[in-house]
């Protein structure tokens, strides 16, 4: 078999040997040198191929094809000037051959001169309108120049003239996607697949179009099939990862992106995406390594520096994080997001002035950068300036009205600044906010799917009311249940199992159910539903004080506790609690017993520990320091035995506490409380800087003047507690 025949059958090594024999036998045969050059090019031996094709061109200077092939190999060797020269020779011999003009355009593409390339591709199409390669190459160059719309016409003509040309269909779909025409792109990709059902790039573009249209399950199917056909296609792996991520399957997204990294380990983009996915999956150390690889491949990439800084901060490496943020700022001093991240770094360390300065810098650079408006609001709230926070949150809402987190935090700022009507109106936005932590949810994976009750009479229908957020919240929200009496239907209440017996005793007209999975049938059968936290708004409590004294404790147990605790003394019983433990560690806080000395030194009071958790050592130190007796009742677990806690609080004459479930319990059983509050107290029921609150009418509020400084707070509490004790003694 001849060398040409062996080449046609793909037997390249044998074809090469045969071609070399032919060249040895006929050293002046241009065709033999030309065939050897084409074979060597196929085998990747470009320098040898160029030499053979140059020889062929010199032996047969009248043959345009030899010069064209030589030019193609020179382009692959990045020897662009010699390539232009060789192709000019071919064009001089055959100016009518459109494919030679395409080749010249490809050389200009390699030289990064897209405008020149576009001119050559257009000329090729003027010579031969059905040349698909010219239309596709023209489209690629136009896309790089951001002029995809100009490519649409030639490609539409190409698919009409050559409907079996899959590359034309796929490029047409791509330019339509560039223009945001996803519906049209989907139709083009689907039509192309009818003719080219195994075209992996067409499947990829179909998947991209479906992704943009939000049809994610179909997109996943198309992209998976594209990857099966084109397992080495990096963009396909990227797109598959994106859809997995949007479907919430972060693990599969990571697997797809790792495949892209294997295929193209030198791509910084691939490692950036892997880092982002690992960060979403809370695999922070791996995310940091991935971002580190991306930076090694592309040092000084600003977004990667920022993302690495965020991950390092999450790992507790605050100094290293700040170094990355500052590096990003040096490289891009005019990027708002970089300034915002530095501001957030200071915010987390309560460096309020620095945080505000950086947020304001971001806004100067980009006035509609909503995150910085929002973060200024958070910073103002944390400093006890909710009225100022409202203004910043309103700016954020104005720029991004559908961002639920902005509206939710604005609601909290309204409430803490005394604007109850506006605050309760927007409090419903908590259900759309990712920041909302609760056992039941109104919108995200809802358990109850009934229509939401908006305050109307039930007309004989039933209403499911369900508890939300933490135990203290349920204790407080349950105070509005009595106001549901008389709405014209049965009320079924679901609550934390620890609260069920207390609420059953307190609300005999309602049916109380422990929270279970799935919920009780009676709850699911209700015609309407309401979250407990929405009752204040639905029942019109924006203009009146919240109910108090609604929890009915076990009277016998209350009496027994008072007798045991007093032991015949005539003291006032005062319960104390000093810590709040939250699911999010950064929201937990305490007023340590070491600062309670002014309170514990008061005479005529027997103090009772109401603090949940293991606190024996702390109590022993406080007793030794103050010389005051503090009763610790080991029979009551204040975290689990809510019946016991409610009875214990009801046995008190007053309570001194931080803002936790104990304050809610005191409010519920109708006992006066003295509540110690942080400057940045994150609870809307305590209006900022106020000494009283309509949400806990029997509470007196004592705010820090400086962040984390409690001494002055407890001096004021001790003064007022002594006055209260004297009044209490006179009345008793």
Measured by DSSP, the beta-strand proportion falls in 5-15%
Name the overall outline.
Answer: elongated
Structural class: alpha/beta
Give a short account of the largest sheet.
6 strands, parallel
Q: How many strand units?
A: 12
Give the CA-CA distance, first to last residue: 119 Å
Helix content: 55-70%
Radius of gyration: 37 Å
Poorly predicted runs are none
CATH class of the domain at 555-731: Alpha Beta
Gross CATH architecture of the domain at 555-731: 3-Layer(aba) Sandwich
Topology-level CATH name of the domain at 555-731: Rossmann fold
CATH H-level homologous superfamily name of the domain at 555-731 = Glycogen Phosphorylase B
Number of helical regions = 36
Strand order across the largest sheet: 9-8-5-10-11-12
- Mean pLDDT score, rounded? 92
What keyword list fits this structure?
single chain, about 725 residues, alpha/beta, Serine Threonine Protein Phosphatase 5, Tetratricopeptide repeat, six-stranded parallel sheet, four-stranded parallel sheet, 36 helices, 12 strands, about 60% helix, about 5% strand, elongated
State the gist of this model:
The chain has 732 residues and is of the alpha/beta class. 58% of the residues lie in helices and 7% in strands. Among the domains are: 180-264, Tetratricopeptide repeat domain (Serine Threonine Protein Phosphatase 5, Tetratricopeptide repeat, Alpha Horseshoe); 266-332, Alpha Horseshoe (Serine Threonine Protein Phosphatase 5, Tetratricopeptide repeat); 339-432, Alpha Horseshoe (Serine Threonine Protein Phosphatase 5, Tetratricopeptide repeat), CATH 1.25.40.10; 463-543, Rossmann fold, CATH 3.40.50; 555-731, Rossmann fold (3-Layer(aba) Sandwich), CATH 3.40.50.
């Amino acid at each position: 078999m001849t060398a040409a025949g062996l080449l046609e059958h793909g037997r390249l090594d044998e074809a090469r040997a045969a071609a070399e024999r032919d060249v040895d036998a006929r050293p002046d045969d241009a065709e033999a040198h030309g065939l050897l050059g084409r074979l060597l090019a196929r085998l990747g031996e470009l320098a040898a191929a160029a030499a053979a094709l140059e020889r062929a061109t010199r032996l047969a200077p009248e043959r345009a094809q030899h010069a064209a092939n030589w030019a193609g190999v020179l382009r692959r060797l990045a020897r662009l000037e010699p390539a232009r020269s060789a192709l000019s020779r071919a064009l001089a011999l055959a100016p009518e051959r459109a494919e030679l003009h395409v080749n010249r355009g490809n050389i200009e593409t390699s030289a990064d001169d897209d405008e020149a390339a576009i001119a050559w591709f257009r000329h090729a199409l003027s010579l031969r309108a059905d040349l698909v390669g010219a239309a596709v190459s023209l489209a690629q160059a136009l896309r790089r120049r951001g002029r995809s719309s100009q490519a649409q016409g030639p490609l539409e003509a190409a698919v009409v003239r050559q409907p079996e040309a899959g590359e034309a269909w796929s490029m047409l779909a791509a330019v339509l996607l560039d223009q945001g025409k996803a519906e049209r792109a989907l139709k083009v990709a689907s039509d192309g697949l009818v003719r080219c059902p195994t075209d992996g790039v067409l499947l990829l573009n179909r998947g991209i179009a479906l992704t943009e249209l939000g049809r994610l399950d179909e997109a996943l199917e198309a992209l998976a099939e594209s990857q099966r056909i084109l397992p080495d296609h990096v963009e396909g792996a990227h797109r598959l990862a994106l859809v997995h991520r949007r479907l919430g399957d972060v693990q599969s997204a990571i697997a797809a992106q790792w495949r892209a990294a294997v295929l193209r380990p030198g791509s910084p983009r691939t490692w950036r995406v892997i880092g982002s996915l690992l960060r979403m999956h809370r695999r922070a150390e791996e995310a940091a390594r991935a971002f580190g690889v991306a930076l090694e491949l592309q040092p000084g990439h600003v977004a990667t520096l920022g993302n690495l800084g965020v991950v390092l901060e999450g790992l507790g490496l605050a100094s290293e994080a700040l170094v990355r943020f500052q590096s990003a700022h040096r490289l891009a001093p005019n990027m708002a997001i970089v300034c915002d991240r530095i501001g957030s770094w200071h915010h987390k360390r309560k460096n309020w002035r620095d945080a505000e300065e950086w947020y304001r810098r971001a806004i100067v650079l980009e006035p509609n950068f909503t995150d910085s408006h929002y973060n200024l609001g958070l910073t103002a709230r944390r400093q006890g300036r909710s009225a100022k926070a409202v203004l910043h949150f309103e700016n954020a809402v104005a720029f991004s009205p559908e961002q639920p987190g902005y509206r939710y935090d604005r609601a909290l700022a309204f409430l803490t600044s005394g604007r109850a009507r506006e605050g309760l109106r927007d409090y419903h936005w908590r259900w759309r906010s990712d920041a909302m932590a609760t056992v039941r949810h109104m919108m995200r994976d809802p358990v109850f799917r009934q229509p939401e009750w908006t305050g109307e009479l039930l007309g004989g229908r039933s209403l499911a009311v369900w508890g939300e957020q933490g135990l203290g919240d349920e204790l407080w929200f349950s105070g509005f249940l009595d106001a549901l009496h008389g709405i014209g239907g049965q009320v079924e209440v679901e609550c934390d199992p620890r609260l069920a017996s207390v609420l059953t005793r307190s609300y005999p007209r309602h049916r109380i159910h422990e929270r279970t999975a799935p919920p009780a049938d009676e709850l699911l059968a209700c015609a309407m539903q309401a979250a407990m936290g929405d009752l204040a708004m639905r029942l019109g409590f924006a203009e009146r004080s919240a109910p108090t004294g609604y929890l009915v404790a076990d009277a016998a147990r209350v009496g027994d506790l008072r007798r045991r605790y007093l032991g015949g003394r005539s003291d006032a019983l005062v319960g104390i609690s000093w810590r709040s433990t939250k699911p999010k560690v950064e929201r937990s806080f305490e007023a340590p017993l070491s600062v309670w000395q002014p309170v514990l030194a008061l005479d005529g009071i027997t103090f009772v520990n109401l603090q949940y958790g293991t606190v024996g050592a702390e109590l022993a130190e406080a007793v030794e320091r103050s010389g005051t007796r503090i009763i610790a009742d080991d029979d009551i677990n204040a975290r689990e035995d809510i019946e016991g806690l409610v009875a214990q609080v009801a046995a008190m004459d007053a309570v001194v506490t931080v803002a936790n479930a104990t304050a809610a319990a005191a409010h519920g059983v109708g006992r006066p409380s003295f509540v110690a509050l942080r400057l940045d107290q994150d609870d809307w029921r305590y209006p900022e800087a106020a000494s009283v609150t309509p949400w806990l009418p029997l509470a007196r509020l004592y705010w820090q003047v400086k962040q984390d400084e409690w001494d002055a707070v407890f001096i004021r509490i001790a003064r007022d507690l002594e006055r209260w004790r004297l009044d209490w003694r006179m009345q008793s």
